[in-house]
């Protein structure tokens, strides 16, 4: 069974239902990404690249010779290039900006910093904002560090904060590539963002103040004496502006991505090595993301196409069910491909095809609540575990290299996600999606 022929990115694309067995490479790769860092962390760090390319190549071969539909895979490749150029360029530019906070942090400073991070996440992306702020945040709090400091940083800066723009979080940028207007995200999600992020910041302030009051009077007095901030690498704001302008360029193909790469190269070449050194900046994190997502973008195509053809048989019928379905899978898998899977399923429920721009326009105009549920779920539930979103493990790794104790995978979930994040997720569901049709 096939969908209608489509014209996307200059390609004539046909959606053909694959054999469901070809979804297994996608599931296997996601399982490896989720479990191997827990079961064999050091081995995985040195051998993660062994799996994405063979699994992806197998699926590409199936589409080329088994389905005779290589243009469909080429479309996914084009989307991968756009995706990795955006987050990669933002990562490089953020690595050229160094922030120094002198002295120790008090609860008000910490809360303001996380709030600032939530805003910056929509400009630098959650990856860029996390890399920009996590090291100064750790230095500020080393005098009374507790694992919750890292967890709430991941909650707010690495995930929930980036729900206002397509730049903010990878799922939303994939939606933008599929035709969701750039400013639709802000206009429809801002209140959900305000409630969710505001509640997290309030909870953090309460927890952090309780921890702060346990410190000695002398230590608290010393902390309150210092409030000095220094920002270096400000010329990189120019390169950031270039990237943001490039986001809006749609034609010709790859011009947007070329501009982003040139901006990233300009930032890297003009930033003093001493500044990169103080940021402990390396390209390893973005190389790892690029390799893993190359496999994801290839292997996820059968799952997306199967959902497109069979969406009406799955049983998801209302925004609330899409909220929980997309959210739960975003927590235990990577939230970017999960977003695409559920967007495909939602549109398929109404006999619409995600690869058809006209169909996307109809879906946004007539079924906006479904898109809102999927979007906010993918971003917010991505904070629920270390594997929900790319920056989560990066932040964890940086904290561990700084000699700090962070929660285990299960400790993260049971000590922080369930008591702090889950009530906010339930609140958003009750207020916005539980009773919507």
Topology at a glance:
Elements: E1 6-8, E2 11-13, H1 24-39, H2 41-47, H3 52-66, H4 70-95, E3 98-102, H5 107-141, H6 147-156, H7 170-177, H8 184-212, H9 217-225, E4 228-232, H10 236-246, H11 255-270, H12 273-278, H13 284-310, H14 319-332, H15 335-349, H16 357-366, H17 368-381, H18 390-401, H19 409-433
Antiparallel strand pairs: 1-2, 3-4
Helix pairs in contact: 1-2, 1-13, 3-13, 4-5, 4-7, 4-10, 4-11, 4-13, 5-6, 5-8, 5-18, 6-8, 7-15, 8-17, 8-19, 10-11, 13-15, 14-15, 14-17, 15-17
SSE run: EEHHHHEHHHHHEHHHHHHHHHH
**Amino- and carboxy-terminal Cα gap:** 29 Å
Mean pLDDT: 86
Structural class: mainly alpha
Q: Work out the count of structural domains.
A: 1
Number of separate strands: 4
Radius of gyration: 21 Å
Helix content percent band: 55-70%
Q: Which of globular, elongated, flat, extended, rod-shaped describes the shape? A: globular
| Biggest sheet details | 2 strands, antiparallel
Q: Helical segment tally?
A: 19
Residue runs with pLDDT of under 50 for 5 or more positions: 1-7
What oligomeric state do the depicted chains represent?
A: single chain
> For the largest beta sheet, what order do the strands appear in spatially?
1-2
Q: Which percent band covers the strand fraction?
A: under 5%
Describe this entry's structure for a reader:
With about 425 residues, the protein is mainly alpha-helical. The protein has one domain (about 5-435). It contains 19 helices and 4 strands. The protein has helices at about 25-40, 40-45, 50-65, 70-95, 105-140, 145-155, 170-175, 185-210, 215-225, 235-245, 255-270, 275-280, 285-310, 320-330, 335-350, 355-365, 370-380, 390-400, 410-435; strands at about 5-10, 10-15, 100, 230. The strands form 2 sheets. A two-stranded antiparallel sheet has the order 1-2. It has a two-stranded antiparallel ribbon with strand order 3-4. Helix 3 (about 50-65) packs parallel to helix 13, helix 4 (about 70-95) runs antiparallel to helix 10 and helix 13 packs parallel to helix 15 (about 335-350). It is globular. The two termini are about 30 Å apart.
